[in-house]
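Researcher: Structure prediction, please.
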Amino acid sequence: MNNPWFGRWVPQEHAAYRLFCLPYAGGGAAAYREWHAIAPEHIQVCPLELPGRGSRLGEPPISRLRPLVDGLAGAVGPFLDRPFAIFGHSMGALLAFELTRTLLRRGLPLPAHLFVSGRSAPDAPPERPRIHDAPEAQVLERLRNLGGTPQEVLDDPELMELVLPVLRADFSVLESYEYLDGPPLPVPLTVFGGTDDALVAPARLHDWRRQSSSGSRLRMLPGGHFFLHPSARTIMAEINRSLPATSPAAVGGSPTPTFG
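Model: Predicted structure follows.
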């Protein structure tokens, strides 16, 4: 089956759990390329490829959250026939949250666990000025401050010509987002944060607890905003803890809340 949202990583029938992974702004499915090797056998990592990057480089990126989430919901819909979880970092955390809300609204199966990483709670007010329609120099400066783009990419005009439209679209997704109040999700929640992340204050991570009625916990890991990469094994160990191979009956159960 040809599903561009999954690229080459098509969900398999043998997986006890499917872990749908959503990328940060400017990122793609390749952000999780190392996860396939470190995931336990019972968890299949299923990164989603957004339009405009990776194997979908020729497609225009989507600049609003609702059509992006609708596309994601349509992509994962055929693969909700077994236990699954959703993980997202930074922009991906917001997509993961709104995707779970969409599944609930549509009466579709819900994830056994929701993992959000490097992102303020969705109801937090914005802290930074709009950048999606700013001059190129300001966009580049924001990227330098974020620290996730290699300097050689920032210094390469041809590469930046390819990357900037996707980044502007992703920043537009974030900057045009309007949180709509709703009941907390009946899904266990784990929040990951970086101890040195200058973009996301710890208080804004704690506020995620309002979004789950099934228990939540916070894990702080060393590193800045892109702690996702050096801490990949630690994150996967936490995911494995929440999705144990030996306790399929626990799917949908509630972890002990450990937010301080």
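Model: The CA atoms of residues 131 and 142 lie 8 Å apart.
Researcher: Thanks, that helps.
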